[in-house]
């Protein structure tokens, strides 16, 4: 079968103007190149280092907002394409949230874990991110501010963070919380 290509942001989340992030393209491939596209336009080509190529966005501006995808090429032939990753550059106006995990950041497989993202804002919603995943894991809101993983499996371990936004007429963002490493024993 054809190789599968994954794409994700490191660190995940909305980026502030002037900020930086890395678009990571992964593939279980032998050799070849990754070509990064933004809104259907070819941006850059990188050789594979191991199974990953990393494209850095530094000093981000509105021009960096858009839909990104990676194409894996070998000998000029496209063998696989990633899903589409949406990158947003937006000013941070909300306070930085705090991410916590109950009962703690080290748990045994089969246990229950509750993630809580706390922010000093009356009507914010928050996204829960896991580094290496393209999609948001959960939407946390003031009414439902916990995200449960139960039972926990080894695959649930990793680096988590959260980011909040205002639910008013004007969409405003917070910075991304400090990361929390969940270890599943």
Automatic annotation (TrEMBL):
Gene3D superfamilies reported for this sequence: Immunoglobulins (2.60.40.10)
Sorted UniProt keywords: Disulfide bond, Glycoprotein, Immunoglobulin domain, Repeat, Signal
One GO term (biological process): cell surface receptor signaling pathway
Domain Ig-like, chain residue ranges per copy: 3-86
Regions that span the bilayer: none
SMART domains associated with the record: IG
Record's keyword annotation contains Transcription regulation: no
Domain of life of the organism encoding this protein: Eukaryota
Protein's name according to its UniProt entry: IGSF1 protein
The organism of origin for this protein: Oceanites oceanicus (Wilson's storm petrel)
């Amino acid at each position: 079968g054809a190789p599968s290509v994954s794409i994700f942001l490191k660190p995940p989340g909305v980026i502030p103007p002037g900020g930086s992030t890395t678009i990571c393209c992964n593939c279980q491939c032998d050799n070849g190149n990754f070509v990064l596209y933004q809104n259907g336009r070819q941006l850059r080509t990188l050789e594979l280092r191991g199974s990953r190529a990393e494209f850095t966005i530094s000093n981000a501006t509105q021009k960096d907002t858009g839909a990104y995808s990676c194409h894996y090429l070998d000998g000029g032939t496209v063998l696989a394409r990633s899903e589409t990753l949406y990158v947003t550059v937006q000013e941070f106006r909300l306070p930085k949230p705090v991410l916590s995990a109950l009962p703690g950041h080290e748990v045994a497989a089969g246990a229950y874990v509750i993630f809580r993202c706390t922010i000093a804002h009356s009507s914010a919603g928050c996204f829960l991110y896991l580094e290496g995943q393209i999609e948001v894991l959960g939407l946390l809101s003031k009414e439902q501010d916990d995200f449960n993983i139960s039972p926990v499996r080894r695959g649930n371990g990793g680096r988590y963070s959260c980011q909040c936004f205002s639910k008013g007429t004007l969409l405003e963002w917070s910075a991304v919380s400090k990361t929390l490493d969940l270890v599943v024993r």
